[in-house]
Amino acid sequence: MRVRYPEYFFWAAIVLLLFSFVREQPTIALNGEAATATAARGPSLSNPFEEIALEAKSAYVLDTKTGVTLFAKEATTTNALASVTKVMTASVTLSLVPDTTLIPIELEAIREEGDSGLKVGDRWLLRDLVALMLVESSNDAARAISSIVGSYALGTEDREKGRAWFISQMNERANEWGLRNTVFRSESGLDISVSGEEPPSLAGAVSTAEDAARLMAYALENYPSVFTATKWSEFLVENGAGELRNARNTNKGTDRLPLLIASKTGFTDMAGGNLVIAFDAGFDHPIVVAVLGSTAEGRFSDVEKLVWATLGSF
Question: What is the pTM assigned to this prediction?
Answer without folding.
Answer: 0.85
